[in-house]
Design brief:
The protein is an alpha+beta fold and 88 residues long. The protein has helices at residues 2-20, 41-52, and strands at residues 25-33, 61-66, 78-86. A 3-stranded mixed β-sheet has the order 2-1-3, with helices on one face.
Length: 88
């Protein structure tokens, strides 16, 4: 359940940034997965594909890096590091 909420919030953030920049589509996102986030890059991508379906973020490239730092303040979360959008 926590994972779905995390992904849902992240998709909403990405779509908000895209809308604020008049994007036609989201090309790529880069995220850092916390060591305690319960995500692997593959698991994150599965959830992302489902949550982004039907939006301008559907089909975007996903770069997900799993941290191994248990002491990182974001160890339990997912940090959006970059978004690439297309304006046309």
């Amino acid at each position: 359940m926590h994972e779905q909420a995390t992904i849902r919030d992240l998709v909403a953030t990405v779509l908000h940034v895209a809308a604020d920049n008049d994007a036609k589509r989201v090309v790529r996102i880069k995220v850092k997965l916390g060591a305690l986030s319960h995500f692997t890059p593959e698991h994150f991508e599965e959830h992302w594909v489902d949550a982004a379906a039907g939006s301008i973020a559907e089909g975007c490239k996903i770069e997900a890096e799993l941290s191994d730092d248990l002491t990182d303040p974001n160890a339990q979360g997912v940090v959006l590091e970059d978004i690439e959008i297309a304006l046309d």
